Amino acid sequence: MSRSRRMAVPLALAVGCGLFTAAPPAEAAPVTCDTTSTPYTYVVTYQPGTPASAVDRELAAKCGTKVAYYAEIGVAIASSRNADFQQKIGVYRAYSGGKDVASAVSARTSLGAVRTLEHTRSVAAAGDLSAQQWDMKAIHAPEANKIFQGSRSVTVGVLDSGIDATHPALRAAVDPRSSAGCVTGAPDSSPASWAPTTSDHGTHVAGTIAGEDPAAGFTGIAPGVRLASVKVVNDDGYIFPESAVCGFVWAAEHGFQVTNNSYYIDPGMFFCSREPGDAAAYEAVRRAIEFSTRHGVLNVSAAGNSGFDTTKQTTDPNRPHPVDSTCGILPKAIDGVVTVSSVGYAGTKSSFSNYGEIDVTAPGGDFVQTPPEGAGPACPLSTTVFGGRYGSKCGTSMASPHAAGVAALLASKFRGAPPWFIARLLEGEADVVKCASAETECTGPAKNNSYYGHGLVNALDAVR
After folding, report:
1. Is 201 known to be catalytic?
2. Would you call 342 exposed, middle or buried from its count of C-beta atoms within 10 A (0-12, 13-18, 19+)?
3. Between residues 122 and 140, which one has the greater pLDDT?
4. Which domains does the chain have, with CATH numbers?
């Protein structure tokens, strides 16, 4: 929502036969801003195309400073020490996730690593790990790799906690020139800004998409494509709106074909487009995602690990506010984003996976769907930052990169195809997974239901 600016002009008034000119207005008193309190970062919305100079003037007049400004979408990232900065700007135009967390608005105090069901089991890179990659077999990735491994002209952005570019399986895939840190809301291309610090979540995701380590017998879905590390997760495990906005704009401006988003935006689970504060966050992220889509990026997102129907929630488990049809989990709630649910080894919905509005499903593991001896752990195996090792993680965070990897193969095969076309192929070539009779909460037809969407992604069909 934008605010109109009113310019002061001299007034000429006809009075009788004479002319009266109003005296110039007195100069406004200088603004007194807080210079000692903790600064917080905000997303602030403007009319797209608003000049940067106008943004600078308003922020300065209301005790803020510009961190970044994305003029094409009219979103500024600002910092302020003033407790009333949001009120000064307008409660429907500004929002700070960091301030909400500090104010204990969020019920979550520690996120770990992007809400994945971590329990990472680390294994050495010795021997042949291919036998333990049941997830790859489930989507026919080994057969697909023999036909086509993807194109180096395709870049997949991993919006996450950073990628360990020194890992043997990822050294050839990570493109430093396309990588950036976005934690502050402003892109930083220095290697330290996009490297992992407190979490190996992004590294695990990256290995699934495009890892390859012949010595260890490990291969991802599309080892022929490039990866870009776009770090949006801070060291406390939070992904705030400003980081996501930066990440999606960076993807658009650097020609990515696909992004993977194994997270939801903090600090709440649901953002409501008509609530104060939430409205600014929702709108800023929506604009950034739609900007990336217009620039040829297909965004793929995890459904979430709360085990509920996202379309029927009436409360936010992380913040005390009601949820209705105007609310959604970001980024998956935005049109054009492919939402991925999770299945375990047995091929049925993971016990933790969200459901409701699902586009496709993919392997994310499940602790109660245990593979037979020698087939690998219950959670998908992939790269970790522990000295070139490998580890298993469960979650829709692990399912999403399987879909992103298949999307990368499709984008490699159909170069220049728009995102909607790649998404339709991803759905159309998926293997149908019907609702089982015991899955009483699964609704909808076989080819598009609330648990599995259009079905299990298929890498082989993507390259044939």
Report:
1. yes
2. buried
3. 140
4. 12-95 (3.30.70), 117-463 (3.40.50.200)
